[in-house]
Amino acid sequence: MDFFEHLQRTDLPRVAHPFIRKATGLSDRLLSGYLKLFNTRLKPMKPIALVNGLPAYDLTQPPLESEAGARVLRTGFNYMVLKKGARPINMVLMTNMACDMKCRHCSAKLYMKSGRKPLEYGEIVDLIDQFVELGGASFIFSGGEPTLHPRLLDLVAHVPKSKSVVSMFSNGSRLAEMAEELKAAGLFGTLVSLDSACREEHDDVRGMQGGYDRALAAARRLRELDMLVGLSTYITHPGLANGDFDKIVRLGTDMGVHQLFVFDTVPTGAFLNETSLVLTPEDRVKLRELTKAQNANPSGPAIMGQSWVNSCEGFGCFAGFYQLYVSAAGDVMPCDFTPVTFGNIREERLETIWQRMRSSEDWGTRFPECRMQDPMFRKNTIDLIEPGTQLPVPYEQILEMRARKR
User: Fold this and answer.
1) What burial class does residue 98 get, using C-beta atoms within 10 Å of its C-beta: 0-12 exposed, 13-18 middle, 19+ buried?
2) In which region does residue 391 sit, left (phi positive, over 0), alpha (psi from -120 to 50) or beta (all else)?
3) By percentage, how much of the chain surpasses pLDDT 70?
4) For 126-137, what is the mean pLDDT?
5) Comparing 119 with 389, which gets the higher pLDDT?
6) Which stretch of 21-25, 283-287, 362-366, 380-384 has the lowest confidence by average pLDDT?
7) ∠397-95-258 over CA atoms, to 5°?
8) Across the chain, what does the average pLDDT equal?
9) Terminal CA-to-CA distance of the chain, rounded, Å?
10) How far apart are CA 154 and CA 184, in angstroms?
11) Which one of 104, 119, 188, 199 counts the least CB within 10 Å of its CB?
12) CB 285 within 8 A of CB 305
């Protein structure tokens, strides 16, 4: 079944989202034809729902036929057809350094312990405005735990919904009680983090008894409110052999969530130097096939699998190409897994930092897979960082360390 056949399914969930509108401008409607160029690449995917009658295939991306979706198509058209420079579509924003859990694998753990002053509300609002000016169409709030930010609802409301959707990663601890307000503010999609389909294992990894039950209660509450909801998890080398993928798919199916984000285990954050859990190349091939098989299954949630997305079969690495990450202290990085900064938004405009990233030796060209899983990339960047160095490391320092090594 190819992508367009998926779109014709009559059993897709229907979601009403008053902030999503169909693109009506002539140029935007003409761009819808460009979607056909993606047919081969999108074949392993399936839509997660019809949002106001428009097919959405990702909790963090606008429906391509919407006003915001036309901005995504325009960016791709300008790059692929008109040969213009790449522009960022997605921004993952670490809204705050506070968290009520102590996850052993936290990708932001080292940033949260830096002692640096987090961005103030006005600085985040200005950053949102700058990103929209660059053509951004997807904000993804992360943390820490974003629901602990005192003005999260105001931040969600500030994002102009005709130009961008706003989604969120959350541990689910406070999500159920905030769900109605988040819906009213215009939240598009929510990914609830779940480290295991086993209650005891999840709570142990998260350092919070009852965390599993809160996460599932949050996901159920979002479904009750007719909101887009998914589960975010990761697969380790031993976990793949133990059937963790199948277990999380069964759980997601039973709960009726729209999508599963299945990340590879990436050596980053608290696991920066831990490579024993990383998937082998053979593991990633197997995980790609499992992803495609589930997405060909008319029932159950759609899978956004990193092993497929960040591969030659998918779209390659988004970091520093269509995506960037901003820490709670304002450091701009290619992605939330890469502890290398190209500048700080307190000191420079976002576009200036973006252009510096795009002109760099390591992020100036597209990369076929996740850099942080690539041994050669790590040898020339991450492995050069001395233990105890405050992260993120400025890119200039990486170049200096590399030059000294040579």
Assistant:
1) middle
2) beta
3) 93
4) 97
5) 119
6) 21-25
7) 115
8) 91
9) 51
10) 11
11) 104
12) no
Residue given tokens 């307190």 in the structure block: 346
Q: What are the backbone dihedrals phi and psi of residue 105, each rounded to the nearest 5 degrees, phi first?
A: -105, 10
Q: What is the pTM of this model?
A: 0.94
Whole-angstrom distance, CA of residue 22 vs CA of residue 57:
15
Residue 339 — very low, low, confident or very high, per pLDDT cuts 50/70/90? very high
The answer to whether residues 223 and 172 touch, using CB atoms and an 8 Å cutoff, is no
Q: How many CA atoms lie within 13 A of 325 on its CB side?
A: 19
Residue 302 region by backbone torsions, left for phi larger than 0, else alpha for psi between -120 and 50, else beta:
beta
Q: How far apart are CA 250 and CA 301, in angstroms?
A: 9
Residue environment code for 3-36, b if the CB has 16+ CB neighbours within 10 A, otherwise e: beebeeeeebeebebebbeebeeeebeebeebbe
**Helix or strand (DSSP H, E) at 56:** strand 54-56
Kindly give, in sequence order, each residue whose CB lies less than 8 Å from that of residue 76, ignoring residues fewer than 6 positions away. 34, 38
DSSP assignment of 114-153, as one string?
S-PPPPPHHHHHHHHHHHHHTT--EEEEESS-GGGSTTHH
**Positive or negative torsion for Cα 292, 296, 299, 301:** positive
Please report which confidence band the pLDDT of residue 193 belongs to, taking 50, 70 and 90 as the band edges: very high
Q: Look at residue 55 in the predicted model and tell me its pLDDT.
A: 87
Residue found under tokens 């039973």? 254
Q: Helix %, strand %, coil % for the chain, to 5?
A: 40, 15, 45
Of 188, 137, 192, give the one whose Cα is nearest residue 15. Answer: 188
Burial class (CB in 10 A: 0-12, 13-18, 19+), 399: middle
Reading the block at residue 239, the tokens are 């976990």
Written as six digits, the tokens of 254 are 């039973």
Of 18-32, 275-289, 354-368, the one with minimum mean pLDDT is: 18-32
